[in-house]
Amino acid sequence: MKLKLFFFLFLIFCISAQAQSYIFGKVTSEDGAEMQDVTVINIRTDEMTMSNRDGHFMISGRAGDELRFVKAGYDRLMKKVTPENVQSPMNITLVRGTIQIPEVAVKQGITGNLKIDSRNFGPSRKVEKLTKEIDRYIAQKTDPRVLAARPGEFVQPKGQGFSIGKVKDKWDDVDLMKYLRASLGDEYFTDLKIEKPQIDHFIYYVFAGGFERKKILKYGFCSDADLNRFQRFVLTRISSYRAPQTQR
Predict the structure, then answer these.
(1) Which of 22, 72, 159, 237 sits a CA distance of 20 to 30 A from 151?
(2) How far apart, in whole angstroms, are the C-alpha atoms of residue 190 and residue 188?
(3) Could you tell me the domains of the chain?
């Protein structure tokens, strides 16, 4: 009877040990605003999720795990899960990243000396001379022989002209790839276990997976919404990208 009871208790312990626990929480900014589309990564399991529009998130984990919180424009945050976090929600506050302001050169103030002040605040003599030479060159009439077509050279006929075809997009995939990498930073991808030499290849892999970018390429502009949409799309492609590497 004691042996059966011991076996029963041992079985319950094994089941509870295998049961998956989840970490719940909420992400806000330093001014208390709820933050959407914050990437949450469990470093131990490599599992990822994103906070919803109310800032709430849920990810599997246990006490002792390290969670990383990443969002473009904000300092990334590492948080170690405590036993209290398993029992109650985890509150996370992200701080906006520091923007480096370029140095501004301050000119020397007025001294009262006309000779010195005219040299400091007015254009230099070299600039004045160059400006006069440019104005003189522009005022000269161009020799017609300079603009004449060379033998065998195509000359555009006068008239209404002809269609030049579809106007090219302002960006191509290379431009967008460079923008995404610069905006998110290499650490965003290395946190996803993508090695630096493979970052460009992974971004192209996400593009090939169906990431909609026609308007971005057309206008040469990627909004914050597009950036968040790309990060959500990354979560749907990261597993399949890792699969061939795992098989090897």
Answers:
(1) 159
(2) 6
(3) 22-94 (2.60.40.1120), 173-239 (no CATH)
